[in-house]
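Module 6 notes. Inverse folding takes a fixed backbone as the condition and produces residue identities as the prediction. Think of it as a translation problem where the source language is geometry and the target language is the twenty amino acids. Below is one complete input and output pair. Work through it position by position during the lab.
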């Protein structure tokens, strides 16, 4: 089990998607002041494309995030659906 916190923020003249991971003991995987950073590749309609992630706006209350998850030498795209409550 692990926890993952992320956000999109403006950096200079572009956007970046940043993630930080924590184990089930709340100890960070990354160093204290480090995050994983994924640069914006392009914006197309209702989608934001970052390196390894795509954010898709379904409605004002729902988004999908598609992440390219690497395990060993294999990669699989996983869909995460989020709905505003």
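Target side of the pair, the amino acids:
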């Amino acid at each position: 089990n692990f926890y993952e916190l992320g956000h999109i923020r403006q950096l200079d003249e572009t956007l970046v998607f940043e993630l930080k991971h924590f184990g089930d003991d709340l100890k960070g995987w990354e160093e204290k002041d480090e995050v994983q950073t994924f640069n914006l590749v392009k914006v197309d309609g209702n989608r934001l494309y970052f390196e390894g992630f795509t954010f898709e706006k379904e409605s004002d209350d729902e988004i999908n995030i598609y992440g390219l998850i690497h395990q060993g030498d294999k990669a699989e795209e996983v869909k995460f659906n989020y709905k505003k409550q």
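Reference fact for the lab report: The beta strands are 2-11, 14-23, 36-44, 47-50, 53-59, 62-71, 74-83.
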